[in-house]
């Protein structure tokens, strides 16, 4: 099957080439020697930085944000994503913009500032959000459920 990030990239290319103002980010697997070693954040303006890296070290300092064996680099994530989201949110409502957010998941939700910015982007009338959320397994993620149940949100299952 085609992965969600590939799908997002294809849609983004199509929208860009039709001249629609679009910004945002997607997450991309980082592989070394055939093994997944982490995820990067890539913004549509071409900036890239680490979102998480696999850590073999199981002795974790309490401040560390982990998802499985992935240690999340919240600072790097915020530096890339927050300026872009603030920028989208400060645009005029006159021009409809599209904001790509791939994805709103466990790793990204370690950032309180990201949660606030996503809420703001969804509330702003000038922006259409093209986002991806994980299929629920285990404990529901508050923001994800909040988004899923919004009247103005349409959820498609990509399998």
TrEMBL record:
The keyword Nucleotide-binding applies. It comes from the Eukaryota. The keyword ATP-binding applies. One of its GO terms (molecular function) is ATP binding. Keywords: ATP-binding, Hydrolase, Nucleotide-binding. PANTHER family: CANCER-RELATED NUCLEOSIDE-TRIPHOSPHATASE. This is Cancer-related nucleoside-triphosphatase. It comes from Dryobates pubescens.
């Amino acid at each position: 099957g085609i992965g969600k990030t590939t799908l997002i990239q294809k849609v983004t290319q199509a929208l860009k080439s039709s001249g629609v103002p679009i910004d945002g980010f997607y997450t991309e697997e980082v592989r070394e020697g055939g093994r997944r070693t982490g995820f990067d954040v890539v913004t549509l303006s071409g900036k890239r930085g680490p979102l998480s890296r696999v850590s073999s070290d199981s002795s974790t300092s309490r401040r560390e944000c982990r998802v499985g064996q992935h240690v999340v680099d919240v600072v790097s994530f915020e530096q890339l994503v927050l300026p872009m989201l603030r920028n989208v949110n400060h645009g005029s409502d006159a021009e409809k913009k599209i904001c790509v957010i791939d994805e709103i998941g466990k790793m990204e939700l370690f950032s309180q500032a990201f949660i606030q910015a996503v809420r703001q982007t969804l509330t702003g009338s000038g922006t259409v959000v093209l986002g991806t959320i994980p299929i629920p397994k285990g404990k529901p993620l508050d923001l994800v459920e909040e988004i899923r149940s919004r009247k103005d949100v349409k959820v498609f299952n990509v399998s």
